[in-house]
């Protein structure tokens, strides 16, 4: 039985990572989900999810690539989960 009562963005695993990491989150209500990876300059690196999703638990893999499919450099990246009711940001470290 699904019993998700809160929005939650979970710390990626593994962290630090190379070459891939899993980002998990939970939704208590149907929501338009925007899950984006940014660099420390605040520039969007990759949009991982931009769609309507039902309540539940979700995971998405990031392979350390940008929108153009290029491998990004080692460093600290930020990822955000945004819905109409919730926004949360976490840090992750890519080591090439």
Describe this protein with a few key phrases:
single chain, mainly beta, 53% strand, four-stranded antiparallel beta sheet, three-stranded antiparallel beta sheet, 96 residues
How is the secondary structure organized here?
Blueprint (H helix, E strand, L loop, with lengths): L7 E2 L11 E7 L3 E9 L4 E10 L2 E7 L12 E8 L4 E8 L2
Antiparallel strand pairs: 1-2, 2-5, 3-4, 3-6, 6-7
Q: Can you give a write-up of this model?
A:
- It is a single chain.
- This protein has 96 residues and is mainly beta.
- Helix content is 0%, strand content 53%.
- It has no helices and 7 strands.
- It has strands at 8-9, 21-27, 31-39, 44-53, 56-62, 75-82, 87-94.
- A hairpin with a 4-residue loop joins β3 (31-39) and β4 (44-53).
- It is globular and about 40 Å long.
- The mean pLDDT is 95.
